[in-house]
Amino acid sequence: MVSRVIPVDDFDLVIFGATGDLAHRKILPGLFRRFKAGQFPATSRIIGAARTEQDDAAFQAEAAAAICDYTGTDKNDADLAEFLPLLGYVAIDAKGEGGWQELKSRMRPGAVHAFYFSVAPALFGDIAERLAGHGIAHDDSRIVVEKPFGRDLASARALNATLAKHFHEDQIYRIDHYLGKETVQNLMAVRFANVLFEPLWNAQYVDHVQITVAETVGVAGRGSYYDKSGAIRDMVQNHMMQLLCLIAMEPPYHFDPDAVRDEKLKVIRALQPVEPGDIVRGQYQGEGSDYLTDAEDPASRTESYVAMKVRISNWRWQGTPFYLRTGKKLRARTSEIAITFKAPPHSIFDDSGVPKANELVIRLQPNEGMNLKVMIKEPGPGGMRLVQVPLDMSFAEALGAEGADMPDAYERLIMDVIRGNQTLFMRGDEVEAAWAWTDPIINAWEDSKRQPEPYDSGSSGPDEALRLMHRDNRRWREIRS
Ligand code: NAP
């Protein structure tokens, strides 16, 4: 299969926070990979900005080291040598007035202008204000803002209002890197480019949906930061909400940014409040791997795990629960969505076992792909015996070299910013609606005196979460990579 790289226009991309972790791990390596793939012209400019005083050459050396570290590129790579001269640097304190005029002088008229705010959210307002105040941003400029987008509805609204003072909604790209993952976009292709699934994609045929995002890492090293957030803020309000929306939304009339985001918003607004009995929080524990130690607060009530039953109040999903779970220090690192269909209403195979329900599993990581479980006859003599087998597809295998070299989420999203395509970015009202649903869940917990359920590091989560399913006569899929 021939790799198709659709080139983008000449651009000037300013990365605020260019000396930080995200820039080193994702943004700069991602840009390099897109350059190497020939996706953008060598006339484009990438300008790093942060408080650290350094010149272009020092930033180029810093970027080269990060790219080599995170992409495995050799330091003498010919493409790297061509890429580095695209990089420049301006020392800027987001809260000060120095450096902005120099930045302005480096922006080329006629190129696409994008400003990536890869700094703490507390600085978003300062940067937006100074970009506008110094006449650097114009009506066509784009800004990219990182998560977390607020920590509750009030702060998200305030952030939206701050950005809206200087930028229109169609200039604001709120990143949720989950939306840039190849398989997440595949959810839309699977649903809306096939006739096979969509007729069954409703409460009449779907028994329930499970969405799992399991991590093996804990929070050691960034525990005091994580402890202010927890699994609901860190994963459910944003990433899992996006997955839920893509699974549950109605077909948009077109694959167009607002058409897609309108449909996602309708799902979020149709979410019922979560009953206290439908949610389980957990904290990992164990010798040398203990949340309370990692969080540096022996009295912390912040969850490192959450499982919940979510209901969507609309015609399509009335009566079909969505079970969400995510946690740290679990048995395996895996993200998947499993759609369990209803069992056939009647079995004609009296003595051969009851047909099991079909299940469609979409794996987001690792080994992105799809697995559809179907019933067949067990081969051999001995009459008609039924057995369930997987139709298993790994995208990397099915798509050959192109599948094996899928762009990282950040690479794709940055190229979409340059193209001016907001489909895979969250709109302001979407983020606010997600917080409006999440806030009462968080507030109810903060008002309660309960402690999270302990679970062993390396396990599948707390026993209480198993009971959440068992009482509905269902069970979680095994967490395995
Ligand atoms: P970080 O490693 O702490 O880097 C912060 C960057 O901001 C540094 O380049 C720092 O450089 C710069 N900075 C700090 N104060 C500044 C100021 N007053 N003016 C200008 N620049 C300033 O943070 P990070 O992990 O890269 O995260 C950046 C953003 O991405 C945050 O919003 C974070 O929530 C989000 N995010 C990060 C990740 C990740 O994996 N790292 C994942 C998802 C989202 P100087 O000290 O040189 O100024």
Automatic annotation (TrEMBL):
Enzyme class, first EC level, given as a word: oxidoreductase
Biological role: Catalyzes the oxidation of glucose 6-phosphate to 6-phosphogluconolactone.
Protein name from the UniProt record: Glucose-6-phosphate 1-dehydrogenase
Family in the record: Belongs to the glucose-6-phosphate dehydrogenase family.
Catalytic reaction list: D-glucose 6-phosphate + NADP(+) = 6-phospho-D-glucono-1,5-lactone + NADPH + H(+)
Origin: domain of life: Bacteria
Name of the gene: zwf
Start and end residues of each Glucose-6-phosphate dehydrogenase C-terminal domain: 188-477
Glucose-6-phosphate dehydrogenase NAD-binding domain residues: 14-186
A GO molecular-function annotation: glucose-6-phosphate dehydrogenase activity
Catalytic-site annotation from UniProt: 239
HAMAP family according to UniProt: G6PD
Annotated keywords: Carbohydrate metabolism, Glucose metabolism, NADP, Oxidoreductase
Pathway: Carbohydrate degradation; pentose phosphate pathway; D-ribulose 5-phosphate from D-glucose 6-phosphate (oxidative stage): step 1/3
